[in-house]
Amino acid sequence: MSLWTAAEAARATAGRATTDWAATGVSIDTRTLAPGDLFVALTAARDGHDFVADALAKGAAAAMVARVPEGVGPEAPLLIVDDVQVGLEALGRAARARTRARVVAVTGSVGKTSTKEMLRRVCAGQGRTHASEASYNNHWGVPLTLARMPAETDFAVIEIGMNAPGEIAPLSAQARPDVALVTTVAPAHLEAFGSIEGIAAEKASIVAGLAPGGTAVVHGDLDVSPMLEEAARRAGAARVVTFGEAPRNHHRLLRATVRDTTTVAEARAWRTPLLYKIAAPGWHFALNGLAVLAAARALGLDRALAVGDLGRWSPVAGRGAREAIRLDPVERDVVIELIDEAYNANPASMGAALEVLAGAAVRDVIGRKAAGRRVAYIGDMKELGPEAAALHAALADHPAMARIDVVHTVGDLAGHLYAALPPGRRGRHTGTAEKMAAGVRRDLDAGDVVMVKGSLSTGLGAVVDAVRKLGHAAPRSGSGDD
Question: Binding positions for ATP (predicted)?
Answer without folding.
Answer: 108-114
